[in-house]
């Protein structure tokens, strides 16, 4: 198997581990075992555990960016933003992706991780501005609601039928 395919396989195995346990709590031995490779081979593909995590950070933002781009298609303005918002709601059904995002933000105490996450977030933001063409404050509100939805999904608020959770999309 070519190294690029093997890297993808390792990243697939690593997503669940890092989403569940975070950077500090994830064992490269467990990732290697899940990927069906040896730990030394893992370190040939990714020289450090942090390098593996950084690859996941970049991959996570690319996935969201790709989903937003596909959802918007040829749309612009409010229609594009609504399509991206609807797609993000669907993405939140992937609990592993959601938890990985939360782990990424939690790991931003590390300057290198913070810089890669900041760059990914910036590219996502700029893409939303470019596609929608909407005013700055509208984009701020879009991302603010997105972060609120992250918290709501992490807390499984769609399953809570109380007044304070009515803002949260229900299944």
Please describe what this structure looks like.
With 171 residues, the protein is mainly alpha-helical. Helices cover 76% and strands 0% of the residues. The chain is built from eight helices and no strands. Helix 1 packs antiparallel against helix 2 and helix 4 runs parallel beside helix 7. The termini are far apart. The mean pLDDT is 95.
Structural class estimated from helices and strands: mainly alpha
The 3D shape can be described as globular
Tell me the radius of gyration.
17 Å
Q: Determine the number of helices (DSSP H or I, runs of at least 4 residues).
A: 8
Quaternary state reads single chain
Overall mean confidence score, pLDDT:
95
**Would you count the extended β strands for me?**
0
As a percent range, the share of helical residues equals over 70%
Could you describe the largest sheet, including whether it forms a barrel? none
Beta-strand content estimate: under 5%
Could you give a short description of this structure?
With 171 residues, this protein is an all-alpha fold. It contains eight helices and no strands.
Keywords:
single chain; 171 residues
Set out the fold topology.
Layout: H1 3-25, H2 28-35, H3 39-45, H4 49-72, H5 77-91, H6 95-106, H7 111-132, H8 136-154
Helix pairs in contact: 1-2, 1-4, 1-6, 4-5, 4-7
């Amino acid at each position: 198997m070519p190294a690029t395919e093997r890297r993808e396989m390792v990243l697939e195995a690593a997503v669940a581990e890092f989403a569940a346990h975070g950077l500090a709590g994830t064992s490269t031995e467990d990732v290697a075992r899940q990927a069906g490779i040896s730990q030394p081979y893992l370190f040939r593909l990714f020289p450090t555990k942090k390098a593996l995590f950084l690859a996941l950070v970049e991959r996570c933002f690319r996935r969201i960016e790709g989903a937003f781009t596909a959802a918007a298609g040829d749309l612009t303005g409010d229609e594009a933003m609504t399509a991206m918002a609807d797609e993000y709601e669907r993405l939140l059904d992937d609990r592993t992706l959601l938890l990985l995002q939360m782990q990424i933000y939690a790991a931003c105490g590390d300057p290198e991780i913070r810089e890669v996450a900041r760059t990914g977030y910036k590219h996502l933001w700029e893409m939303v501005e470019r596609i929608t063409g909407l005013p700055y404050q509208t984009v701020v509100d879009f991302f603010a609601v997105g972060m609120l939805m992250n918290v709501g999904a992490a807390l499984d608020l769609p399953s809570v039928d109380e007044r304070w959770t009515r803002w949260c999309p229900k299944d």
